[in-house]
Amino acid sequence: MSDRRQVIWALASMAAGAPVSAQVLPNGYEDSIRRLTLGQTVQPGRVRVQMPRLADNGQSVPIQVTVDSPMTAQDHVQRLVVVSDRNPRPVIASIEMQPSMGKADLALRLRLNGSQRVWVLAKMSDEAWWSGHADVEVTESACLDAG
Amino acid sequence: MVARIHIPERVTRDEPFEVRVLIQHPMETGYRFDADGTAVAKNVIHTLTVHFQSQLVWRAQLGTGVAANPYFQFWLKVPDSGELRVTWLDDQNQGASESRRVRVA
Question: Which residue of B lies nearest to A95 if distances are taken between CA atoms?
Fold first, then answer.
């Protein structure tokens, strides 16, 4: 772990006491989200997460994230965070975005430990956090070895 | 390590176009055991950056939840022709970069 990350983690745990709205948080992973958002409220909406309802194999599951944002210099998505509520390490990816992307539309492939809800949090340029989620049934977990 | 970047042959000025990036990498989680029962060390690409003409487009911190051979699909808007560069670094401090020329029609 880099020094910078340790500093961020330390800062974040200081802010962990702040209130976070409960219904938008994945079960059991509130802590990592609280660290990421520095305890700020995460509102549901503006983030659309598309995943297959059923994935045969957790090794590679496609996900597409679309955020309702014009991606201009004044109003754009600053950060996207993909969080799993069942993986051993909940934070899958944290992506810092610039307005030059033109569209807040990103796709990648995830490795998932079983059926779960995948959350995507978006921090806008006005510092507000929004979130969306998708439920996916995974027939074969990617973590068979890990038990 | 190899990567492939796919973009349209010609793009329109200030009009977003789709970019697809595929990087060859095992993204070892550290939870896997090999045939002898020895744990395979964690080795994932932890940082990936995308630049256009030395200007940051996006930067990602990745974890073990990203599938092997990471694949990304995103949009980019450019004011003029230039170079698109993808750079990455993994836990074994191995990194590389790949670039593609973007041509504005």
Answer: B60
Closest by alpha carbon to A136, among A46, A60, A66? A60
Please tell me whether residue A23 adopts helix, strand or coil conformation. Answer: helix
Residue B90 Cα to chain centre, angstroms: 12
- Flag if B76 and A97 touch (Cβ within 8 Å): no
* pLDDT band at residue B26 under the 50/70/90 scheme: very high
- A96 to chain B, any CB pair closer than 8 A? The answer is yes
Which residues of chain B are within 8 Å of residue A120 when distances are taken between CB atoms? none
Mean of pLDDT values over B36-55: 95
Residue B3, classed as helix, strand or coil, is strand
The Cα B72–Cα A50 span in angstroms is 15
pTM: 0.84
CB A86 within 8 A of CB A137: no
